[in-house]
Write a structure and sequence with these properties.
The protein is α/β, with parallel strands linked by helices and 469 residues long. The protein folds into two domains: 291 residues, 3-Layer(aba) Sandwich (Rossmann fold), CATH 3.40.50.1820; 123 residues. Strands 1-2-4-3-5-6-7-8 form an eight-stranded mixed beta sheet, with helices on both faces. An eight-stranded antiparallel beta barrel has the order 10-11-12-13-14-15-16-17.
Length: 469
């Protein structure tokens, strides 16, 4: 288990770089000047421009709504939908997500409503001064109720998520942490997660002054109440248990990378359920366009929707069914049940060749940097998989052992045992799962992920990944 600590380099160094980048204007990284992702937006746009007369802001506030395909169709009349709120970054605006990404294309098969609020440059926070703008209260107390009233939403926590990029990543996580009763999932792409620690006394001039105007002086209650690091550090076990699932990603070339890594360490130390991804990319729309597609897949799975962003197997005219944490009680087309055959059923020879051999393997509770190993062998047509990951300097481990029953282009099914032991889960005792399980490739991922993610011993979400060779 890693212990949270600030980096040995000045803890404010990354903030200087971030603030310089986002405040310096369009020559560096102003979002309004970044080239949009390539690809046309559908002519039959599902984006609807809206506005609300906000009493808290004292003026009209615009926002966009992206409706699911067929929302106004007669056969959809009366159907209600889950909602994802997407927040823009500093120097951006509420139109960015629709104009600079292919989100309409990505959400085409999804049955959910997307809302993109206007946050201006207010860090989604109620300003320290009495006459300051109240961006947080506006979104929580006015916008969400307005959306639930005006559109056919499922107005429940388990059907509402929030995410954002850069400044919006900060806003989304703090909303999720401060209002866990409202959101089941909170996500951040390249989040500026440490902004609440900037002060004018440490950074004289425009940078510190603009932040002080929103968060107040060092040590203010506004800073404490809106610092994701501080919120998690002070959280009791019961509050952590009530938190939404946290998603964080950041590009390895991003100037906010180190701060996001530090936030990951804190999540692991405190046992906050989360998923963290780091991959090549910078602080730009090319990266965010790719990652929002990945995130939509997680949102769809979280909402329990019937259709997904993941590629569908060409042999079906419907999505591959989600396999729950139980033995199959009936055969599913393309997925033979255990005991039907002795030899592994290979539907795709190329996929079978890719499976054979040694692979890196990981469980996020142990590490995504210190991998274990899984080996797939073939003896007389029977494919087996066996692997283990051990914690570095801990007793934590992941073990997998079983017979692969079928191999398809995008997934394989195996029957066997998965054992996990994590110090802060299930009282540190081993958790054993026996049965039939599915590992699947989704989107552009370079690994197979266990689809039966719910840990039966403690209710947390396990991400067991087996990586391509």
């Amino acid at each position: 288990m890693s212990t949270y600590r600030r980096s040995s380099v000045s803890p404010f160094l990354w903030i200087v770089l971030a603030a310089l980048a986002v405040f310096a204007g369009p020559r560096i990284i102003a979002q309004s000047a970044v080239k949009p992702a390539e690809g046309p937006i559908s002519a039959a746009s599902r984006v609807k421009a809206q506005e609300i007369q906000s009493k808290l802001m004292g003026r009209k506030m615009p926002f966009n709504v992206i409706l699911p395909r067929g929302y106004d169709a007669r056969e959809e009349n009366g159907r209600r939908y889950p909602v994802l709120y997407l927040l823009h970054g500093l120097t951006g605006n509420f139109t960015n997500w629709a104009e600079r990404t292919k989100i309409q294309q990505y959400t085409e098969p999804l049955k959910m409503i997307i809302v993109t609020p206007e946050g201006e440059n207010g860090w989604y926070t109620d300003a320290y001064s009495k006459d300051g703008a109240k961006y947080e209260s506006y979104i929580i107390r006015e916008l969400i109720p307005e959306v639930d009233k005006k559109f056919r939403t499922i107005a429940r926590r388990d059907q509402r998520a929030i995410a954002g990029l850069s400044m919006g990543g900060f806003g989304a996580l703090k909303f999720g942490l401060k209002y866990p009763e409202l959101f089941k999932l909170a996500g951040s792409f390249s989040g500026a997660l440490g902004v609440a620690t900037i002060t004018e006394s440490k950074f004289p001039g425009t940078i510190g002054k603009s932040i002080d105007a929103i968060f107040g002086p060092e040590g203010s209650e506004v800073r404490k109440a809106n610092d994701p690091f501080d919120i998690i550090r002070r959280a009791t076990p019961d509050k952590i248990k009530a938190m939404p699932f946290i998603y964080v990603d950041c590009g390895t070339e991003d100037f906010l990378f180190q701060n996001n890594r530090e936030f990951l360490e804190l999540l692991v130390e405190k046992g906050v359920p989360h998923e963290y991804r780091q991959l090549p990319g910078a602080h730009d729309w090319k990266y965010w366009d790719k990652q929002v597609q990945e995130f939509l897949e997680i949102v769809d799975r979280t909402f329990g929707s019937s259709s997904t962003v993941a590629e569908w197997d060409s042999r079906f005219d419907h999505p591959i069914p989600e396999i729950r944490n139980e033995r199959l009680s009936r055969p599913v087309k393309g997925l033979p049940t255990a005991g039907v055959q002795d030899q592994t059923v290979v539907h795709n020879a190329a996929a079978a060749r890719m499976l054979l051999g040694r692979h890196l393997m990981s469980l996020q509770w142990i590490s995504w940097d210190y991998f274990g190993q899984a080996t797939v062998t073939n003896s007389r047509g029977i494919y087996r998989i066996k692997g283990e990951q051990k914690g570095r300097g801990t007793d934590d481990f992941l073990r997998i052992d079983g017979v692969i029953r079928s191999i398809d282009a995008k997934q394989f099914t195996f029957e066997g045992t998965i054992i996990t032991q994590i110090s802060h889960i299930n009282g540190g005792e081993p958790c054993t799962r026996d049965g039939e399980f599915v590992f699947r490739i989704t989107g552009s991922r370079k690994y197979w992920r266990l689809m039966e993610m719910d840990n039966p011993c403690d209710g947390v979400t396990d991400y067991v990944d087996i990586y391509f060779r």
